[in-house]
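Record type: monomer structure entry
Structure origin: computed from sequence
Chain ID: A
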Amino acid sequence: MKKFLLLIVTLSIICNIAFQLPVFAQTNKTDSKETSSTGGIPGLIGGAISGLITGLITSWLSYSYRIKELEKQFQFKEEEERRKEIAQLKRDYLNPLKLSAEEVLERLDWIIQGFLNLDPNQSYNQQDQNVIQILKNFEEYRPYRQDEEEKNNKLAIAPKEFHKLIEFEWAIKYAKDHVTEDYIEEWKNYVNKCNGGIHYFAFSSLYLMVCYISYANKMRDGMPFTVQAYEYNSYINTLIQKINKLREVLGVEYGIWTEVQDSIGEVAIQTGGKVINYKEFYTNLREDKNKAVFLRLCNYYWEIDQKIENILDIRHKLNELVNHLNSEENHLNKELFTSTKKSSNVN
């Protein structure tokens, strides 16, 4: 474009010089009166051509400026659309998934370390094998009925390192019995237990897993592939791959099967995309006609001492997922700030 403008300016100058030379020659041979009558015509032609060229240059410059302004407006609008899409992506998908994954990870760490006496940061093969061998003896102390006296008798004879696990398994069995209706306690007592002590810990552990499964399903099935926020397509692809790997590990034979995970998501996600709250969860676990979808969930935490390798694998996959979710947080925030700042400058 600069070369084109330079060519136009050069042609204008040449035309001015070319048409002014005859006028200059005429003035050396005749008086000034004759010059105006004989040499003025070429000058007028040259001036007209020069004016035409100048007008073209002015029009072109005005047109170019307008095009640049339109390009800037389009760019700012595109950045604003990207900012809105990233904000929606974080609000509706990434933040709920990240929060639920972090809470399940924290809860699994508590269970692994506090109840199983293992190191949550190590793989199965890196664990103290003596502890794993000791856990194989837990079966004889496992509470199978909602009989507090029987549970206390088992606590009295069990090694001290089994006490917390006995209490936890007893509370998980309580949840499972309400799903299968093998045991139904009075509503008032049921609510009290769900909101206090080891039963709250057990029920909330189930609920946190429901939240993660539901938001993971929403991410897999409901999230539109990004168009405006195209920079994150690769990031989202990797995220979905990690979710799918965790889904498969969780869906093993003695785990929460993938089809059941889908059913849990359908039951737990309300209109608008939010997951049922804790009160709605423990109410549904006892009263809802669809409560059977929670049976595999209860079974997973029941006899958890027999699923050590799997639960450690799940814990590590969750940790990888959380790290990936955190890896883009600063970049996403930077993109939001940059787009917002540019949009404000335009206004």
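Annotation 1: The radius of gyration is 38 Å.
Annotation 2: The CA atoms of residues 19 and 45 lie 7 Å apart.
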